[in-house]
UniProtKB/TrEMBL annotation, chain A:
PANTHER family: PROTEIN YNJB (PTHR42779:SF1). InterPro entries: SBP, YnjB. Gene3D superfamilies: Periplasmic binding protein-like II. This is ABC transporter substrate-binding protein.
Length: 377, 545
């Protein structure tokens, strides 16, 4: 009898799964369901999307499904592979940089978003978000948040009032504490960003980096960067022969005491993570040089999506003062707002430091290819 | 009478067609999706930075994990031939990823053990080849032990030992010179499965393996997920490279077996009757120590996952977190409930379908007196999973079907069934072969149909083996990563895929909860089914004694 009961229980689970699969398939046909592909390696980001999903369900009758990915390129590959026209797979994407460039080049994105999303009028005018990694946005995506590359270090390596660390100072630190520093391995997003930030600091003519990479100038522009890394690597973790595979892995190693530095693209993150007890209490954030590599992360809608109208409503909600304020909350994600939040101006200063723009997108491939050729052997 | 049973039509053409399709369709689809971009000497693949190290590392992991696991499993099987230990089950059931996450937290420099006993545990670095190899050995050895016992039971090894002893050989020599070569031969396909998995490993290689450069498995998956023309070409050419490495590994398994046969043959000719008691005793001691070591490591890993699931603010050099939060852990469990349900549902469906097809396949062979080679049923294990899944993805038919949610879900379940079937077949077929058809004959003579006879008379003899096959399918299904990720197209989210996604950031609590749930699911399955498995052991032991 017990066995029969157990069998019945097990079968009911299978049936429930099958039914939920069928129900989801039915949901798919309803215009209120939006499949939102977004990186999901952060509990705070996931919690924020859950909150947005609840809000949208209540106020807009939209079911926002967070399709969690380890890397958004998984979703981009999916959109590019879809040659069948309309699709149910991807309705909304959290992207930027080369992922955006690939989709825009392939004409896979809905355009004219500024006109279609009323809250885009609220986006701060002082932000230069119209060029994403050297690719003109042209209405194919709208900014969702601001990213600024910073180093995270233990207080023991930093003077009390210090907010900047130069590449030379970092080299000296690495020499004093061999094996304690590293950076995420390119071509990971943070790894390539690290290279770009250093290139801006080290090259003689940073303006060259904002132009398309030309074979004739590449070696000249990048020579100081490779020279610097050649000097730095012997003092890094594993003597620069192994690198954390991602910024997430590096922060794990930082928290575990394996490394003394990490990187972040969120200027509020150190304070927020410390409030949440997720980052070592003696961690501090520093800018690499006087100007920080600054970019934006965006929202875009694939042309193949059958639920474009609902996806537009989602973007509009995510750009609303309420959603942006919630996103910037230090108890949560703490991602800087792209719209002006009056109450926040009073509470705390803008966390952003002076910035330099992203290099032209063509430098990404050059930096990644040359780094791999030099250091992945 | 036997021929009478054989003549019974126990199923229609529909079922035969279904099973045939189930087994062979993936090969047809895979062949249609194979990209012809073979990496000839001029291919751009050879210019990829660090490729020689990629190949070297993949082969090193493959060779070492396969050889050491085989050697250890042989020693353990010898030492436990009379009293099989159940302690291996804990490590056997541990999903690879869950085990790796906990192991790294415990045993890497600055890990928990290092904090407890500073300076003593610096052997297992993060992102390192030795750590990955050790993890693979720790997981593959119990796999070979548990399935190797089933193979051993099918050999009349006790008679061989008796005969050898009557000729004056010691039991020690008899075992190594007579039983081992035969056991190794019966284990060939399983060892090949381990070799193929090890050389193309993706999941734990992404967590514990070297990354500059990575092993071929993770590199191939990362290429597959890119979209520029250069990387697409690299992925197509990398497919063939992985196939080539697999062939090298298969050849190695044959070489390994031949070497053992040669050494054993030479020893046999020199034949020494002296009983090396000290050597046997030492071996028993080593195996005993190894058994307890792995058991303790597994228990510690489970506890570590549990602790990490409810810990907040756990930074070096603290031995304990700054606070425990039951609420935080429970909130993550609630968040993971859909994935838990999906994992359980897919695994139960997979295990049920696999067990049904398995029984039908075996009975068809028995009823038609046609014993097909095992290779026909387990060939899925001989090709790297990543390569196969990539071939399916490139087949137009599959990419069309998985473009819808329902299609993606069923194709994923199909892939789980197909890969699980091969493992389940290896665990069930030997036990079924050992059964005579007499029970069926009795049933038929009482007027029952074939399947009613099977249910009432033959099935009770095979309950343990059936449960074992069900368990193995279940365990294989819950650990599937590459097929779920690539075929599920984001529509199918299991604990394993969720674990990888959550691990892509810096979180420790959420991945730990996912890993813990995964392991608990596996343990629950083995506890629920252990009764049947114990019965199988008991009945077999009784027969052999």
């Amino acid at each position: 009898m017990k066995r029969i009961k157990l069998l019945a229980a097990l079968l009911s689970i299978v049936l429930a799964t099958l039914m939920s699969s069928t129900v989801s398939a039915q949901d798919r046909s309803q215009p209120t369901s939006v499949r939102f592909y977004a990186w999901a390696g952060s509990a705070e980001v996931n919690a924020y999307i859950q909150w947005a999903s609840r809000e949208l369900a209540e106020s807009h009758a939209i079911t926002l499904q967070h399709v969690k990915v380890a890397d958004i390129s998984e979703a981009v590959a999916l959109v590019l592979a879809n040659s069948a026209g309309e699709s149910d797979a991807v309705d909304l994407l959290w992207i930027n940089g080369e992922n955006f460039a690939a989709l825009k080049d392939a004409d896979r994105l809905v355009g004219g978003l500024e006109d279609k999303v009323p809250n885009s009028r609220l986006i701060r005018r002082d932000l230069d978000w119209h060029v994403d990694f050297g690719t003109a946005v042209e209405g194919f995506e709208l900014p969702w948040g601001i990213a600024q590359l910073q180093l995270i270090m233990h207080t023991k390596h930093v003077a009390p009032a210090q907010t900047v660390v130069t590449p030379q100072a970092l080299l000296e630190l690495a020499k004093r504490s061999p094996g304690r520093f590293s950076y995420p391995k390119p071509p990971s997003f943070h790894g390539t960003s690290w290279l770009k930030a250093l290139a801006f600091q080290l090259t003689d003519d940073p303006a060259m980096l904002t132009q398309p990479a030309e074979p004739a100038t590449i070696d000249t522009v990048l020579k100081p960067l490779w020279g610097y890394l050649d000097r730095l690597h012997p003092y890094l973790w594993h003597q620069g022969t192994e690198f954390p595979i991602s910024a997430g892995r590096q922060r794990q190693l930082f928290n575990q005491g394996v490394l003394d530095n990490s990187v972040t693209f969120n200027p509020n993150e150190v304070r927020a993570l410390q409030l949440q007890n997720k980052l070592a209490p003696d961690a501090r954030s520093l800018s690499i040089g006087e100007r920080a590599l600054t970019n934006f992360h965006y929202l875009a809608i694939p042309r193949a999506s059958r639920r474009q109208q609902a996806a537009l409503e989602v973007i509009n909600f995510l750009l609303s003062p309420r959603a942006q304020a919630r996103k910037a909350d230090p108890q949560g994600w703490a991602d800087p707002s792209v719209i002006r939040l009056p109450q926040r101006d009073l509470d705390s200063p803008d966390p952003l430091v002076a910035s330099h723009p992203e290099p032209h997108v063509s430098w990404n491939a050059v930096l990644e290819r040359q780094w791999l050729a030099r250091y992945q052997r | 009478m036997a021929s009478e049973v054989s003549a019974v039509r126990f199923s229609g053409y529909g079922v035969a067609l279904f099973v045939g399709l189930f087994l062979f369709l993936p090969w047809v689809v895979g062949l249609s999706g194979i990209n012809g971009q073979v990496p000839w000497l001029t291919a751009e693949l050879w210019d990829y930075p660090g490729l020689s190290r990629v190949i070297g590392q993949s082969l090193t992991v493959g060779f070492t994990a396969t050889t050491v696991s085989t050697v250890l499993a042989s020693l353990i099987i010898y030492a436990e031939q009379r009293q099989p230990s159940r302690l291996w089950a804990l490590t056997f059931t541990a999903p690879h990823l869950a085990f790796a996450v906990a192991f790294l937290w415990l045993f890497t420099p600055f890990g928990w053990i290092d904090r407890l006993l500073p300076g003593s545990w610096s052997w297992f670095e993060h992102q390192s080849l030795p750590t990955l190899t050790l993890l693979l050995i720790s997981k593959e050895t119990p796999f070979l032990v548990v399935l190797g016992r089933q193979q051993l039971r099918q050999l009349p090894f006790e008679n061989w030992l008796l005969q050898a002893r009557s000729l004056g050989a010691s039991s020690w020599h008899s075992w190594w010179l007579v039983v081992l070569p035969a056991w190794l031969k019966s284990m060939r396909l399983l060892i090949i499965a381990v070799a193929v998995y090890s050389v193309g490993v993706v999941d734990i290689a992404s967590v514990a393996g070297p990354m500059n450069p990575p092993l071929l498995g993770p590199l191939l998956v990362s290429w597959q997920q890119q979209f520029d023309a250069t990387t697409v070409n690299l992925a197509a050419q990398g497919f063939w490279l992985l196939i080539a490495l697999t062939m090298v590994m298969v050849a190695w398994v044959y070489v390994q077996e031949a070497l053992v046969r040669k050494v054993c043959g030479r020893q046999l000719r020199r034949h020494r009757a002296r009983q090396p008691r000290s050597r046997a005793q030492a071996l028993l001691g080593v195996v005993g120590g190894l058994r307890w070591l792995l058991f303790i490591v597994s228990i510690a890993s489970g506890l570590a996952l549990f602790a990490m699931s409810f810990a907040e603010g756990w930074f070096y050099p603290a031995l304990l977190p700054s606070e425990w939060s039951l609420q935080g852990g429970i909130a993550v469990v609630k968040d993971l409930a859909p994935q838990l349900l999906e994992t359980l549902g897919v695994a139960l469906l997979t295990a049920t379908l696999v067990t049904l097809v398995l029984v039908w396949t075996r009975e068809w062979q028995r009823a038609h007196s046609r014993e097909l080679p095992d290779l026909v049923f387990i060939a899925a294990l001989l090709i790297p999973q990543t390569a196969l899944v990539l071939a399916w993805l490139h087949a137009g038919s599959v990419s069309y079907v998985i473009s819808s949610e329902t299609g993606a879900w069923w194709v994923t379940v199909y892939a789980h069934c197909w890969f699980s079937f091969a493992f389940a077949y290896l665990s069930y077929a030997p036990a079924e072969r050992a059964e005579t058809q007499d029970h069926l004959t009795v049933g038929r003579s009482l007027g029952f149909s074939y399947w009613r006879s099977w249910w009432y008379f033959k099935r009770p003899q095979l309950n343990g083996a059936l449960m074992y096959a069900f368990l193995v399918s279940f365990l294989v299904s819950i650990a599937q990563y590459v097929p779920t990720l690539l075929l599920g197209q984001g529509y199918v989210s299991t604990l394993t895929t969720e674990l990888v996604v959550l691990s892509s950031g810096a979180e420790w609590q959420a991945p730990a909860v996912a890993a813990m749930l995964l392991w608990l699911l596996a343990l629950l399955a083995i506890i629920v089914l252990s009764n049947g498995i114990r019965r199988l052991h008991f009945s077999r032991d009784k027969k052999s004694s």
